[in-house]
Amino acid sequence: MTTTAPRADGRVLALAHHAARARLEGVLTRHGITFHQSVTLRAVVAAGGAAGRDELVGDVVGSLKTEASVVSGVIGELTSAKLLEADLADLADPAAPAAPARVRLTDAGRELYEATSAESAEVTARLYAGLTDEELEVTGRVLTLITERANAELAAGA
Question: Chain-centre distance of CA 46, in angstroms?
């Protein structure tokens, strides 16, 4: 008896997302950070290790589809945990506002990011094992198209 794979739909995509995210959150929990904190650290790393606060908030809001106040709170948590800090350029400017315009990774933040990324990469390698390049390319194209369409609808308020 041959079983066929289910047709991709919202449920199938959600099940894959939640299963993989639960596995990732296990890694993050062992390191004492949340998913939102991990996404925020990743965004700072992607920006070269330092980012404008407003740009960082916008980037993470766009990724997580959450409120700016939530992301600002996450930045505060990461700063309190000494994983992010005010960019020194802000400290040198006496006219800088009370909330720094830029934040940067601390050495501890970079070490944590590198450790969680390495462990996450091992999990990802196991989850994607055996998939062909063609399967991954097709999946990537389809998921990117779905993401673009959903983002366009969100932007249009639909």
Answer: 10
